[in-house]
Design brief:
single chain, 712 residues, alpha+beta, nine-stranded mixed beta sheet, seven-stranded mixed beta sheet, 35 strands, Marine proteobacterial sortase target protein, membrane
Length: 712
């Protein structure tokens, strides 16, 4: 521009050199202006392209630290080559349910494949069997220490042998690996497990998990932890060391084959009590009732594995059990299980301080946040004059509505209702901050009250153990009650958080369940029905190692269930406790009337392993791996230190053939939002970084041209 202004000025006398340069300079100026315009337009277009990439990157970063996305060569999402078919065959006898879960891995590719599937089981499941079937051949698995089982499986995989392994990461989260599935063929793996049947408020309930909500992994990523057993979208972090092993990809049903991720459900119930009805809040059922027996299946032959399967049954009115005893002899040892229901009684109405904590993280988006808001609003309705309350919401950070609990009065309640109705779900799941805020909050004015915390969440976190320690150490005189939200909540977290918090838990499967579930929970919260429990089995002069060793307080409608080893079915069991108001209550059971049962030894062994783990946690020590491994191997039940492995000895895959490996995704839980999808796409923010580099190049070019013009 300076050059053009000089040429237009008549006061300036151009010499011969200037005259010769005038025409080329004008032509060069036109090219410069054209290049500048093109550069600026390219920069604007790149900005429009980069912004959504940046927004997506930020959303990913906020929701889950340490994400890892994998892509194919064309950067496109592909359907898995492995098709997964599942079959649940459940037999319920009394208080235990035994399940044969059959998975069929069908390889639709033209390459040998290894299938890796991370999946949930019931939070109190005891896994005791693994069997692999190839054609007509069946191979039974066995238990080994976890590191040895991995080595056994890896050797078989590399040698081209058919093999499978089952490994526990959490009490309700497992990985199954199946090696050398031939092209176009199938391998069948059968998992056998048992679980206790829940009994509350006169109703039995069985839950079969089918998928899981992607878990939040707090902490800084540890990229160097990648290895051959990396199978998830997350990297290990400083707070979740196995994040890379518990983060299966999560996809929509349309992203898998139309016949994949479906399950058949068949349940046989032998309750020992005349049954009134069988129902389900999750699926439509076909039921045949015959006195104390019921045959149950879903109306659809196969159901989509996008939500937990929940089945409930009620005894005929007046026949509800008040107490029951079961007996088993296994390898020359006696095992007894007793169930005692506390009396229905109501204590004095106490003034309460309720702190409601609601999870508003990204995993709660969709139906879950609507259910959570309804649950919290229902909780506010239970407040009485003289109570105080506060509301805490948390995602990446925790925020309290009030600085301290306030009286349950009109204007405070109205403000709280408006606050709750405006809550939306986004961000991470930083539970530790919410617990610190709730458990460290000073009491409000107005005198002494019973202090309770109601925690409403889907439990989608990977650092459960650290949170349990935080609850135990910070609880003081409070009680923590948990409310599970969504179609596939983390029941292990919900149950154990309530146990460590000396409270109760409930789960809400759908919006229609809110009133029913919350009425029972808040009725139980009014006061424990039975405290200072004393359970006395007949003295046989030897330690019985009961499970649980020290039962907690009993709440309304919740029974005491305890198992002992080494005691024959003879004598009297004495149970006593303190009722509201200080009165004593006691009852006795005749052990000679015990009904025959099976699986009590496995139930005891699983409980004993939990007891040893808890004892170590309370003392800040590492659990006794040797003792837990011995229990696991003797009773053939999986543990944190052992795994099942099964190997067919003959070689199946020719040495000239190579084998791929594929992580089979889980389905997005019903009612969740697309933000919880975790596609197997590549990892990095490479498109974003490339676009940012081009953008910087365009700006640099434009600036260089402007500088050049100013210097002319």
């Amino acid at each position: 521009m300076m050059l053009l202004s000089l040429l237009a000025n008549p006061a300036v006398r151009p010499d011969l050199f200037t005259a010769r340069r005038a025409k080329p300079a004008a032509k060069q100026s036109r090219w410069l202006r054209m290049a500048e315009g093109i550069s600026l337009w390219l920069a604007v277009l790149l900005m429009l392209f980069v912004h959504p990439l940046y927004a997506e990157a930020r959303q990913m970063d906020m929701e889950q630290p340490g994400q890892l996305y994998l892509m194919n060569d064309q950067s496109a999402r592909q359907q898995p080559a492995l098709i997964l078919d599942s079959d649940f065959r459940v037999h319920v006898s009394g208080l235990l349910a035994e399940t044969r879960l059959t998975r069929v891995f069908r390889n639709t590719s033209d390459q040998w494949q290894e299938g890796i599937f991370v999946f949930p089981l019931p939070d109190k499941a005891t896994v005791f069997g693994l069997r692999m079937t190839i054609g007509e051949r069946e191979i039974v698995g066995h238990i080994e220490p976890k590191a040895k089982a991995r080595q056994t499986y890896e050797r078989a995989r590399q040698a081209g042998q058919h093999a499978a392994t089952l490994e526990q990461h959490r009490p309700n989260l497992f990985t199954s690996r199946v090696a050398n599935i031939p092209p176009g063929e199938s391998v069948q793996v059968e998992i056998r497990y048992q679980q206790p049947v829940a009994y509350k408020h006169g109703e039995f309930e069985l839950r079969l998990p089918a998928t899981l909500t992607p878990r939040y992994m707090p902490g800084e990523p540890l990229a160097e932890t990648q290895g051959p057993w990396q199978s998830g979208w997350a990297l290990a972090t400083t707070e979740v060391a196995d994040a890379h092993e518990i983060s299966p990809f999560t996809v929509r049903p349309k992203d898998v084959d139309g016949g994949s991720h479906r399950a058949r459900i068949g349940i046989e119930i032998e309750s020992g009590l005349a049954l009134a009805d069988v129902s389900s809040p999750s699926h439509r059922l076909y039921t045949e009732l015959d006195g104390a027996r019921a045959t149950v299946r879903t109306e659809q032959e196969k159901v989509l594995m996008d939500r937990d399967v929940i089945v409930r049954w009620r005894p005929v009115a007046g026949s509800e059990p008040k107490a029951a005893v079961f007996h088993q002899t296994w390898q020359g040892e006696d095992y007894l299980m007793a169930m005692v229901l506390p009396p229905e009684t109501v204590g004095p109405v106490l003034r309460r301080e309720l702190v409601f904590v609601i999870d508003t993280s990204g995993s709660m988006a969709g139906d879950s946040i609507a259910q959570a808001r309804s649950a919290l609003l229902k909780g506010l309705e239970t407040l009485r004059p003289g109570d105080s309350f506060n509301v805490i919401q948390f995602n990446s950070q925790a925020h309290a509505l009030f600085a301290q609990p306030v009286p349950a009065e009109g204007h405070y309640l109205a403000r709280a209702r408006r606050y709750v109705q405006d809550l939306r779900a986004n961000g991470g799941t930083e539970m530790a901050g919410a617990l610190s805020l709730a458990l460290g909050m000073d009491s409000g004015p107005g005198g002494e009250r019973v202090r309770q915390v109601v925690f409403i969440t889907d439990g989608a976190v990977g650092n459960e153990s650290a949170l349990f320690n935080q609850i135990r150490s910070g609880l003081t005189d409070r009680r923590l009650f948990t409310v599970g939200i969504g179609s596939a909540p983390n029941m292990h977290f919900l149950r154990e958080a309530a146990r460590w918090g000396r409270g109760e838990f409930t789960a809400i499967h759908s919006g229609a369940e809110v009133d029913r579930a919350l009425n029972r929970l808040f009725a139980a919260m009014e006061a424990p029905v039975l405290t200072n429990l004393d359970v006395r089995w007949p003295d046989q002069g030897q330690p019985l190692e009961p499970v649980p060793a020290r039962p907690g307080d009993l709440f309304r409608g919740t029974p005491l269930v305890q198992v002992v080893r080494g005691l024959p079915a003879a004598g009297q069991l004495q149970v006593s406790g303190q009722l509201p108001g200080g009165r004593r209550w006691s009852t006795s059971l005749d052990l000679a009337q015990a009904a025959p049962a099976s699986g009590l030894n496995r139930h005891w062994a699983r409980g004993r392993i939990d007891e040893l783990t808890d004892a170590a946690r309370l003392q800040g020590q590492t659990p006794d791996e040797q003792q837990i491994t011995e229990l696991s191997v003797r009773h053939s039940v999986i543990s944190p230190f052992t795994s099942f492995v099964v190997v067919e000895q003959r070689q199946a895959r020719p040495e000239t053939e190579s084998a791929g490996s594929q992580s089979i995704p889980t389905l997005l839980p019903a009612g969740s939002q697309p933000g919880m999808l975790r596609y197997p796409q590549t990892a990095t923010f490479a498109p974003l970084f490339t676009a940012l580099g081009l953008l910087g190049l365009m700006f640099s070019l434009a600036i260089a041209m402007l500088n050049r013009r100013s210097s002319l």
